[in-house]
Amino acid sequence: MKFVSIRIIRHEAVKDCGSFEVRYPGGVERFYWDDEPSRRLRPGAMTSEEALEKAKAFARAERERMK
Which helix (H) or strand (E) covers residue 48, if one does? Predict the structure, then answer.
């Protein structure tokens, strides 16, 4: 089994708003979130919990793909 380095990095430039960055050997994927509903620019924007779950799911899928 080959070891694959995949990292999830939390970015929060503004309080309660940011992204989770998934770094993997094939590139980078970002999952943006905003925990303040009145500040969200898009109606379908995720909360931090939703974005983290999607980032984890993406990382797991990428790890499985690289085996």
Answer: helix 48-65
Amino acid (one-letter) located at 45: A
Q: List, as own/partner pairs, every contact residues 4-12 make where C-beta atoms lie below 8 angstroms and the sequence separation is at least 24, other chains included.
A: 4/62, 4/63, 4/66, 4/67, 6/59, 6/62, 6/63, 8/52, 8/55, 8/56, 8/59
pTM value? 0.86
> Following CA atoms 17, 22, 27, 30 in sequence, which dihedral angle do they give, to the nearest 10 degrees?
-20
In the predicted structure, residue 66 carries a pLDDT above the cut 90: no
Q: Which residues have CB under 8 Å from 26's CB, separation 6+? A: 62, 66
